[in-house]
UniProtKB/TrEMBL annotation:
Top-rank taxon: Bacteria
InterPro entries cross-referenced by the UniProt entry: KH_dom-like_a/b (IPR015946), OHR (IPR019953), OsmC/Ohr_fam (IPR003718), OsmC/Ohrsf (IPR036102)
Entry-linked Pfam families: OsmC
Biased composition (Basic and acidic residues): 21-32
Location of region: Disordered: 15-42
PANTHER family: ORGANIC HYDROPEROXIDE RESISTANCE PROTEIN-LIKE
NCBIfam families: organ_hyd_perox (TIGR03561)
Protein name stated in the entry: Peroxiredoxin
UniProt family annotation: Belongs to the OsmC/Ohr family.
Gene Ontology biological process terms, A to Z: response to oxidative stress
Amino acid sequence: MISIEKVLYTSHTYTTGGREGTGRSHDGRLDLKLSPPGTPGNGTNPEQLFAVCWSACFLGALRHACNARKISFPATAAVDAQVDLVHGEQGFFLQARLAVSLPDIELDIAQQLIAAAHQNCPYSKATRTNIDVSLTIA
C-alpha cells in the first residue's frame, strides 16, 4: 500500500452516455462531447483524452528530470502519444507509444531523462505492467 502524505488535487467530473455522451468537470473548465473512436462526428474519445493527458503529464515529469539534473528544459519539447484500443482473446485493452522530442539534448542524456520521467510520471506509474508501452526518441 502506498503511503499518502497529502492530496494535491482532486479532479471531479460527470459523464453521461458513455462513448456517445458528454463529459464535464464540476468547475466548468472541461465540457466536451464524446464519440466512439474511428466514427465520424464532432466529439473526442477516451483514447484521445488519455493520450493528451498522459503526454502532458509526461512532459511535466521530463521537466522535473531536467531540473533535478540542472539541464535546461527545451521550450519545444514534445510528446507524440498514440494510444490504441485493441481487442484480443481477453477482451478490450490499450497499448501505447510515446515518441519524445527533446531538441538540443544529446541522445544518451535524452534517453536517461525519458527513463527517469517514465519512472516518475503518475500516468506511467498507473499503466506500468498493465499495458504495453513503447518509448522512443523522436
